[in-house]
Design a protein that fits this description.
This protein is of the alpha+beta class. Helix content is 37%, strand content 19%. It contains 20 helices and 22 strands.
Length: 647
């Protein structure tokens, strides 16, 4: 429970009730102060722990408003909304209702004493934003004040002006009287000037390599965009670009941090503009006609389809909130958020769009049709195959001009290429080309690991695991994992050291080993094992150690998923480190345990596997905290750990 007592920077100061005491029939609250920042997007205050964690006493008589408040969670954020008129130390904070903006009234001002009205926003700011050469400038109102970080300013500019292209911001420096790159919000002043500098689109670089002609090869047409001719040999000259090639169509995009509402038809935009003006002047909400509502929902659904075919609840909520923010006249009365009806309509619209795509044969939708389900799964809602770990390209379309037969021929040719030496470029190109075919096999057929490894041996190499993870999620695997893990290591070790009991003693032994290690990979391994123990999971059941190959072989066949290491007696370095899935040694001769863990995490995505029950919390931490993949909904354990990490 929360109470409001005092103010800070024009905003109400929230206090969390720890305990209630009765002293001489007078109730006294023992409270801990919390930090609050007004979120216009949600119409409420985001709460976070105070760095000082200061504890104080507040008597009931000191409260101008004894109405208690309850916090709730929205998209992983602690939120609270004021319910009533609050008066704090000469500053009236007036809340007009859910979703409204706090207005501050200085009761000691001369205007107030003379009986006149004096309403000002809580730390508002107005900025001039310049686009291009300066001929296009617009006004940006920051009714909640200047954000705390540069990223929040960037997101606010992007959402307010509906910018789709990437950009950076510059501010007018008073010392040099010219624009300079914005690196700190302290450089932004009220009535200041910002400049939007668009980031030029990167030209895709081209890698050239030769491919030996095969009997099944067909002549490539000589076009400007997709072919080059070799005049020095009979070999075919092929091209590839990073993460994609001209023949591959993977248009998946990660869900944006800020959803930008698309432009609708000219007539729809004109009518919405008129209704927005009427709403600003008269406060009249607009109930669109069925035709206009259909146009709006079609536009939003088409934009959402660029990111996901199966949007989650929070994603529909973000889109509905963005719509009512871009067009305030579409806000809905009678619901707490002001956009619940739009959210529900979006869910129905996306369902209708999936039906249309399924009739057109889209593989990601068709896989869930009744006639493609296995025996015993004859219900439309049973065993839905959809992205569950933030996969972007879950089941992509085949490259233009390719069929299952032609891609099967590429797969057979790939088996020959794997046996050749120094052939990584050709293997990478063929793996890229057959990505859609491989994903359909993984998701649709759910093959046994042993059979799949025999069909796609090239996938079970560290470089290809990294490449496959990039194709599925559009994010790099090894580099992001290590950079994020190293970034959190110091803070993580501080949290782990505070664990008590038997598990705490075990963690301390791992951390003592980490402190004494000069090898960075061994240090990472010790911290990872400590994290597993902290999350109440057993590292010994997952990271298995053996003294001989014979001992390992006998136990591997009974292992569902894990990492093994073989270390002979008297040797500090392991003789072999490998990954086991479904009793099959899928990869071996990996350099370190931490690299084996990264490879296994990548294979889980590449093979569309579920996390093992014995390590599900650890893998969820890696996915949602380290890799930042779908981190909106967290398990309670992971949520608590995240709060401590970012405190």
């Amino acid at each position: 429970m929360l109470i409001v007592h005092g103010s800070s920077d024009g905003l109400p100061k929230f206090n969390e009730i720890i305990q209630l005491c009765i002293v001489k029939d007078n109730p006294i609250f023992i409270v801990r102060g919390v930090c609050a920042w007004y979120r216009e997007h949600y119409g409420g205050f985001e709460l976070s722990e105070s760095p000082t964690r200061e504890v104080g006493l507040i008597e009931l008589g000191d409260l101008e408003d004894p109405y208690p408040l309850v916090e709730y969670i929205v998209a992983g954020l602690r939120m609270v909304i004021l319910k009533r008129f609050v008066l704090v130390k000469g500053l009236k904070v007036l809340v007009l209702g859910t979703g409204s903006i706090p207005l501050a009234l200085n009761c000691d001002s001369p205007l107030e004493r003379s009986g006149q009205e004096c309403l000002t926003m809580s730390n508002p700011a107005v900025l001039r934003v310049i686009f291009g050469d300066g001929s296009d400038s617009r006004k940006l109102h920051m009714v909640s004040g200047i954000p705390k970080t540069v990223d929040e300013v960037h997101d606010l500019v992007k959402a307010s002006f509906r910018l789709h292209q990437e950009f950076r911001l510059q501010y007018m420096d008073s010392d040099f009287n010219e624009f300079m790159n914005l690196t700190s919000v302290s450089e932004i002043q009220n009535m200041g000037t910002l400049k939007v500098i668009y980031t030029p689109l990167e030209e895709p670089y081209i890698t050239l390599y030769t491919v030996e002609p095969t009997a099944s090869s067909s002549p490539v047409p000589n076009t400007e965009s997709s072919s080059l001719a070799s005049s020095s040999s009979d070999a075919t000259l092929c091209t590839s670009t990073p993460h994609s090639s001209p023949e591959v169509h993977t248009s998946g995009l990660s869900w944006p941090l800020v959803f930008v509402v698309p432009k609708f038809s000219y007539e729809a935009e004109l009518e919405l503009q008129q209704k927005n003006t009427e709403f600003e002047t008269k406060g009249t909400h607009f109930n669109p006609s069925p035709k206009l509502k259909g146009i709006i929902l079609d536009g939003l659904a088409q934009e959402m389809m660029k990111y996901t075919k199966y949007p989650k609840d929070y994603q529909c909520e973000e889109v509905a909130a963005a719509l009512t923010k871009a067009h305030p006249c579409l806000g809905q009365l009678g619901c707490k958020s002001g956009f619940s009806g739009w959210k529900q309509s979006l869910k129905y619209k996306m369902q209708n769009y999936r039906t249309k795509l399924g009739r057109l044969g889209h593989p990601e939708i068709r896989v869930n049709s009744l006639k493609h389900k296995r025996e015993g799964q004859g219900k439309s809602a049973a065993h839905i195959k959809k992205p569950r770990k933030a996969e972007v390209n879950y089941i992509p379309l085949h490259p233009k001009g390719e069929t299952e037969d032609s891609l099967e021929s590429e797969r057979i040719a790939l088996l020959t290429e794997v046996a050749k030496r120094d052939n990584e470029a050709v293997i990478k190109a063929k793996m890229e080309k057959t990505f859609s075919y491989r994903r359909q096999e993984v998701v649709n057929q759910r093959p046994r690991i042993e059979d799949f490894k025999n069909r796609w041996p090239a996938l079970f190499e560290q470089s290809e695991v990294n490449a496959e993870f990039l194709r599925v999620t559009t994010k790099p695997l090894r580099s992001k994992f290590l950079s994020q893990f190293d970034n959190f290591t110091v803070k993580l070790m501080q949290i782990l050291q505070n664990k008590g009991g038997v598990k705490g003693q075990r963690i301390k032994r791992f951390l003592e080993m980490a402190d004494s290690c000069s090898n960075i990979d061994l240090r990472r391994e010790c911290v990872l094992r400590s994290l597993v123990v902290y999350l109440n999971e057993d590292p010994d059941a997952f990271f298995k150690e053996y003294e001989s190959t014979e001992e390992a072989e006998g136990d591997i066949t009974a292992t569902v998923m894990g990492i093994y290491s073989i270390r002979s007696q008297g040797h500090q370095e392991p003789d072999d480190i490998g990954v086991v899935i479904e009793g099959v040694k899928v990869m071996d001769n990996i350099s370190t345990i931490i690299n084996a863990f990264i490879v296994l995490f990548g294979l889980i995505y590449a093979l569309d596997l579920a996390y093992p029950d014995s390590m599900k919390y650890t893998f969820e931490f890696v996915q949602k905290i380290l890799m930042n993949l779908d981190g909106h909904k967290l398990n309670v354990k992971i949520q608590q750990l995240k709060i401590k990490l970012f405190a």
